Amino acid sequence: xxxxxxxxxxxGLLYLGVISTAGGFLLWxxxxxxxxxxxxxxxxxxxxVVGTLLGWLLLDNRIGCYYNLRVIAWNAFH
Length: 78
Description:
There is one protein chain. The chain is mostly helical and 78 residues long. Helix content is 74%, strand content 0%. The chain contains 4 helices and no strands.
């Protein structure tokens, strides 16, 4: 079992926390700046659908029977 002090673990955490999170945040906001408000606002509701499809295509995740309920709940509360 790897210890938490291993450099690979800290490198992975830094990558996830800094590179991918900050990069995704910056790209998302830059993309929204390029659109007008009415067009940009609709993309917020596509996030769970696109995330599910990318997980299915790239990570071989299964789409379960509760998928539609999760999409509805996400859109209702966000």
